[in-house]
Design a protein that fits this description.
CATH topology of the largest domain: FAD/NAD(P)-binding domain
Protein name: Coenzyme A disulfide reductase
Shape: globular
GO molecular function: oxidoreductase activity
Keywords: FAD, Flavoprotein
Radius of gyration: 28 Å
Number of strands: 28
Strand content: 25-35%
Low-confidence stretches: 1-29
Distance between the termini: 110 Å
CATH class of the largest domain: Alpha Beta
Family: Belongs to the class-III pyridine nucleotide-disulfide oxidoreductase family.
Mean pLDDT: 91
Cofactor: FAD
CATH superfamily of the largest domain: FAD/NAD(P)-binding domain
Oligomer: single chain
Structural class: alpha/beta
Length: 488
């Protein structure tokens, strides 16, 4: 017969009866279940730069139950590294994976890959997929962006041989197709298009870079700075065609030809790098406000808005969320990984009770094509003119090292001033561009004046600079132009 009491074994230890053990186990399971039930449930939609970084930030600062729902097939990876894998500067796409699924399992973050959220019920506080319902106390929408494809087609899919680079899986697919390609048409004159064209040439494939804009980098660079990038690409052997739209035949997979006005070019593959648009369908269908720039409207805490008020428990960040421009005060979008990462920090802090705000952006950026680095920050004269803002510009061409030191490279600097304060910068050269842009970004945020820059002290050593830093002639050129404007 059974007993509710333990008996003493041969060793003198008390042996507990099965009923007593079962009761203790049941108690522990019940306590664990209660603890699980009482945990704050955080659901993150999107496994990109913002979503994954927000998950790890929240984990570091809390014991919350975190679930990441991602339609991607890979965990945290560097999207910006894809062109350099295509150019074989990085040996494999796997090298771009920053944190593996094991990392998230070990940190008790439940990552559901290939899990597409179909709808969000704001009232019931639940995210719904085709497979399951995920209730939440806090929600993060980090759905990123979709490739912008300006193409009319009878079918809602891209023909065989035409690719985009939205994800790591896209990169792998395109990389596989490149193994038998000899000529590739890259459509889009932005940073991704330029970096990919350069990478293909490095790999031994003939690239044709086509953009309908009159210049490369038309939204980021002035024509004279764009010309520097174009000249470098042509030196590498990239054929560049600007100011002309591309026509892709429906049967491209069979014809293997692209058309530009009255010309046609043979191409084994086409890569569409024509920009992105925010992925906001899910948010819009849930009743969340979409702003004037086309992204999810958020406040400084990155909380979303619905029904005329901001929701304290729902956040949005990354490429799908709108930001405020530092120089113009306008609402716009930012497609930078650095922006998404900073947004993740703010969201993580606010979800875990550490109040944080996300301020206006100057958007410093940099890119690399072959041996040329180029980038910028803040306003361009074209953007300023569209908004009725008057700017004064200075330009100079210098070197990155002393004239007698081996390995010196060209350096082009262009600065824009608004009301006497630095408001924008564009740079291109062989080295040191990123560090200069970072410094100029800080100068813009601090409202550094042209007078401040005239009295700037700079350091010098022959292997890393000229005695007179090229920044100084740029500032002096702006002063001369400012005086001309005053006398006219």
């Amino acid at each position: 017969m059974g007993s509710d009491f333990g008996v003493t074994g041969a060793t003198g230890k008390v042996i507990r009866a099965a009923g007593e053990v079962q009761e203790e186990v049941s108690g522990k399971v019940s306590a664990h279940a209660r603890a699980e039930k009482n945990l704050t449930r955080v659901v993150i939609i999107g496994g990109g730069a913002c979503g994954m970084a927000a998950a790890t930030k929240i984990r570091r600062q809390s014991g919350f139950k975190i679930t990441v729902l991602s339609c991607d097939s890979h965990t945290a990876y560097s999207h910006c590294g894809i062109p350099f894998v295509l150019g074989r500067e990085i040996e494999s796409f796997e090298k771009l994976i920053i944190k593996t699924p094991d990392f998230f399992r070990e940190n008790n973050i439940d990552v559901r890959l290939n899990e597409k959220v179909r709808s969000i019920n704001l009232t019931g506080q639940v995210a719904l997929t085709g497979k399951e319902a995920y209730p939440f106390d806090k929600l993060v929408i980090a759905t990123g962006s979709l490739p912008f494809i300006d193409r009319k087609s009878q079918a809602n899919i891209l023909p065989y041989g035409i690719f985009t680079l939205r994800s790591l899986a896209d990169g792998k697919l395109f990389g596989k197709a490149l193994e038998t390609a000899q000529t590739v048409c890259v459509v889009g004159g932005g940073t991704i298009g330029i970096e990919c064209a350069s990478a293909l040439k490095k790999r031994g494939i003939k690239p044709i870079l086509i953009t309908r804009s009159k210049d490369l980098l038309s939204s980021q660079f002035d024509s004279d700075m764009s010309a520097i990038v174009r000249a470098h690409l042509e030196t590498l052997g990239v054929e560049v065609i600007t100011g002309e739209p591309l026509f892709l035949p429906e049967n491209f997979w069979k014809e293997r030809t692209v058309y530009v006005k009255d010309r046609h070019f043979p191409a084994d593959l086409v890569l569409l790098a024509t920009g992105v648009k925010p992925e906001v369908c899910l948010a819009r269908e849930a009743g969340i406000d979409i702003g004037k720039a086309g992204g999810i409207a958020v406040n400084e805490m990155l909380q979303v808005k619905a029904g005329g008020e901001f929701l304290p428990n729902i956040y949005a960040g990354g490429e799908c969320a709108e930001v405020t421009d530092l120089l113009t005060g306008e609402i716009r979008l930012s497609q930078l990984g650095t922006t998404a990462r900073r947004m993740a920090d703010v969201i993580g802090n606010n979800i875990t009770g550490k109040y944080s705000t996300f301020g206006p952006l100057a958007d410093p950026w940099v890119a690399v094509a072959g041996d040329l680095q180029f980038g910028g920050v803040g306003l361009t004269p074209e953007k300023a003119e569209r908004r009725g803002i008057k700017v004064v510009t200075g330009f100079s061409h210098g070197r990155t090292r002393a004239s007698y030191y081996p390995g010196r490279k060209d350096l082009y600097i262009k600065l824009h001033f608004k009301d006497g304060c630095l408001a924008g910068a564009q740079l291109a050269g062989g080295e040191g561009i990123k560090e200069r842009i970072d410094a100029l970004s800080l100068a813009i945020k601090k409202k550094t004046t042209i007078k401040d820059l005239l009295s700037l002290e700079t350091c010098y050593a022959p292997p890393v600079s000229m005695l007179v830093d090229p920044l100084m002639p740029t500032v002096k050129d702006a002063v001369r132009n400012m005086r001309k404007d005053m006398t006219n």
